[in-house]
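Methods, example record. To illustrate the input and output format used throughout this study, we show the complete record for ABC-type phosphate transport system ATPase component. The sequence lines were provided to the predictor; the line carrying structure tokens was produced by it.
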Amino acid sequence: MIKIVNKLTYPEKELEESENIIIGIKDFNAWFNDFHVLKDVCVGFREKSINCIIGPSGSGKSTLIRSINRINDDVDGFIHQGDVLFNGHIHGRSIYHKDVDVNHLRTKVGMVFQKPCVFPKSIYENALLGVKYLKKLSKHEKLRIVEENLNAVSLWKEVSNRLHEKATTLSIGQQQRLCIARTLAVKPTVILLDEPTSSLDPVSTYAIEKLMLQLKEQYTIIFITHNIVQAKRIADYLVFMCEGQVIEEGTKEKLFSNPDKQQTKDYLSNEYCEC
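The corresponding predicted structure is encoded as:
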């Protein structure tokens, strides 16, 4: 089972000793106005691995990952308690510490949404959209970044002769890979993906899964999916959530073969649980 960061007295030391846990979440609660979405969540996400979060709709999966890069801050009525520790980037402090630069945090923790979020600009401009605000770039540097990151998502050969066409002319699967390329361009450490293949056809889904398996060599991936078979194909570690709580977490092999909780067994076997 993944070790959890249980004490926050010396957060840097705790994280260093937590077997490659790059993000440690401790006693985290979240509300939207009076609705208690996340309840005492404690979980650790492993570095350079695919960490899959699974669970029924409404279990708090999206709220959890959107708390990791503080997107929920922009939602009216959002309240939180507890800590999210990001090892090595904010000196062991909670990402909710008053001195944390949220914009910097979001360059280190990128986000890809369920539906491709391309802008009404060219493919070229979409690929550069995040990085161009971070520093001034020459024309040569811009093209290098575009080519490098479109290559990383296996899209360069498909679009290299149409870079100045609208991104909306791409297929949905290509748009999703473009969104991932845009995220990679800012050099994140962690990539959050909220059901990125749910609207894709099987061929595009396979392309994204293959990409995730390649990217985990360099990045930590936190991946929400409702697809149990998909989780079994690509996950290294599983986190099973239900009704705002983490029911069980551990390696894929452990949870699929011998889970500790009956709810986990029911959900992975029948996609049904009574939590």
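Annotations derived from this record:
The chain has one domain: 11-270.
The CA atoms of residues 100 and 147 lie 32 Å apart.
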